Amino acid sequence: MIKRPFISLAKPRIEYESPDVTLPEPKKIPTSEKVTLLLNEAYEPFGKKNAVLLKKDDSVKTGQKLSLYDDSDAYVISSVTGTISSISPFLGEFGCSYIAIAIDVAEDEEMDEQFKALSVEPTMDIAKNYLSFIPGNPPASLFSNGSTSPSIDTIVICGVDSDLLITANQHALISDEKAIRKGVGILKQITGIENIIMAAPEHLMQNAGVCGAQVSVVDTEYPATLPRMIMQNVLGKIVPAEKSCEDMGVCFVSAEAVASIGTAFEEGHIPLFKKFNLIKKDGNSVMISARIGTPVHEIFSACDVTVNEKDRIILGGPMTGSSIYSEHHPIQPDTDAVMIQDGKNLALVSDYPCINCGECIRICPAKIPVNMLVRFLEAGQYEQAAEEYDLYSCVECGLCSFVCVSRMPIFHYIKLAKYELGRISTAEATNA
Amino acid sequence: MLNQKKFIVSHAPFWHDGSTVTARSYNMIIAALPAVLFGFISYGMPAVGVVSLSVSSAIVWELLFNKISKRTISIGDGNAALIGILFGMLLPATSPWWLVITGTFVAVVIGKQIFGGIGGNPFNPVLIGLAILMVSWKDFFDFNEALVNYDLGFAMVYPLSALKHLGTSGIDAFNTADLLMGQQSGGIGATFGLGLIIGGIYLIIRGFIRWEISVSFLAGVVITALLFNLVNSAQWAGPVFHLLTGYTLIGAFFLATEDSSSPVNFIPMLIYGAGAGIMTVLIRNTGAHIDGVVFAILLMNLVNPLLDRIRPKALGKVV
């Protein structure tokens, strides 16, 4: 954990992790007996949705596309061969509904050949129908045909990682040069977008240079790699607070996703292994490669990490990740890190009020008046917070909570306010 | 599934830089110690008594109010102790016990707790306590009268009142080095300029106070005093005299920088500090009071919410 320096006249400079130069081969986690895939769709057992395509005891092959409902676009790619043992609803952060498809793994692996036949000639439809559940998790807007609004005219490939301690994307940039080059070519071909920019840190310029995209340098000080910060510092475009980067025609995709796209069309089967950092209790990090859907406890036991009651398990990095309540939670396509913190030395929040010390103001990269904002958020006055105190300018870096002397959960308040306002506007739209 | 391990689940971020309100308060107290210890050496046991009573009664008032209002006990954060020690530093060593206890009551309960405790106070609690005492029992804050029985080997006349009544001819006896080394009468912890400067620099380097406020406060004092001095050097004292006498230094480093009642944005901090500095010299030179720091800072506390509306445009704000 980064501590406040003894001398802190100016705001601290927090650096991103750079990858290990020796580039050790990622530790491969053996296939677990059971994997769980999270399908991003609401579960409606009695709903009006059309025919249910999957049921318990169905057998699935490795690389098979699994869709639960007939009329839905949402799907997952099975990372193993086996039989479905259960289909159940799963509630994620901030009311996100998923359907958890659990698969008992069979002994012999059988590959699904559906994609192989199609992969000879890459098209947008194939990418859309088979490649949105691959390691690196490409955003849906990447595979939108341009017919849907907003239309994308620039693709930014992040050769940097969005959070501290993580090196997954940088690792992909170094080790999967060929796949990324192929992926960039395919993206150009299927989207017709020529303006592809690789954003990479200075020390990876050589690797970024050969990928066939334009190269831009990203600073290594947190939070320079967050999309809105890249928009401002690298592309020179300021995203208005109420708009998203997609609204501005820019789509962000991770280097790992591009590598996965390249690999998929090169080898004719969909990549199933997610590379990520395992950040142990002592802060040391190990590169791991595991099948998507592997429960996290398999990773801990394979790496000799003891998990105790009241520890904290985090998917993602220390600043923006999300903690999970079960060690059976699966690795997902966008899991860039699994972090475990010892229950004895956790940084917990308090219910102290803001003392107006100004640390958050000094560190906020978006220049939000956090001291005022948090007072309104505490009182639940979200609309006023959004109108007068720049709630929507927040880039969600978490630095305000990191430095808060009162240890207020400021970042949590901000996320909650955005979620609640989102709910209100959705309700208004449906009732209008 | 039933005997699953239970984990701690919370929202990001999962790191914290380790700063606490308690550490902040205690570091302020540590920074104040050189000046306080100098006061103890100069004025002896009465000074020890006043400061000790001030610290302890401030803590007791806060504890009592926590109990009465049925809120969590907040004396552990050290803020009440900080209010106590700063309050004691401003008092003359001969203050009677009831004056100290009344003062800390006003400071802690009326200055801070009735606004909801730490972070809610619109004014600096220490100065609220002191201002009410100064208005109510004026005589106890006449340092010439209060310290009449002390002979510390230098002119036991309060420099600011000498200036007020006699003009610059009254302050010839004071030289800069003596004033800096605390060779002047005044509040227990407010006379030792060097100690206050060291404490202030410590706080600035550690990032516990905002340097913009201290620097602009001192700049405001210097510039205003210089202007007065240039107009009529027989009547108005020079900037260095104003810097080293009265509550100027303790005000610049310990009072004006109080978190809740001061702005946090860069330009407002400069205006706030400079405004308080200018008001200080204005009150000293043209006002009714002998020292202007207390009322100058309280006045700027009042405009703080307005000042803090001057802020940089947030990322992505179009208008």
Report the β-strand fraction of chain A as a percent range.
15-25%
Shape of chain A: globular
**Total number of helices of chain B:** 14
The percent range for strand residues of chain B is: under 5%
Task: Decide which structural class fits the backbone of chain A.
Answer: alpha/beta
| Count of separate DSSP helical elements of chain A | 13
pLDDT averaged over residues of chain A: 90
* Rg from alpha-carbon coordinates of chain B: 21 Å
Task: Provide the descriptors you would attach to this structure in a database record.
heterodimer, A: 432 residues, alpha/beta, six-stranded mixed sheet, four-stranded antiparallel sheet, 13 helices, 16 strands, B: 319 residues, mainly alpha, 2 domains, 14 helices
Q: Secondary-structure blueprint of this entry?
A:
The complex is a heterodimer of chains A (432) and B (319).
Chain A: E1 27-28, E2 34-39, E3 59-60, E4 65-66, E5 76-77, E6 82-91, E7 97-105, H1 114-118, H2 124-130, E8 154-158, H3 168-175, H4 177-191, E9 196-201, H5 205-209, E10 214-218, H6 227-233, E11 250-254, H7 255-267, E12 273-279, E13 285-291, H8 296-302, E14 312-315, E15 322-324, E16 337-341, H9 359-363, H10 370-378, H11 382-388, H12 399-403, H13 410-431
Helix pairs in contact in A: 4-7, 10-13
Chain B: H1 21-43, H2 45-68, H3 79-90, H4 97-110, H5 125-136, H6 143-146, H7 159-166, H8 176-180, H9 193-206, H10 211-231, H11 239-244, H12 248-255, H13 266-286, H14 293-307
Helix pairs in contact in B: 1-2, 1-3, 1-9, 2-3, 2-4, 3-4, 3-5, 4-5, 5-14, 9-12, 10-12, 10-13, 13-14
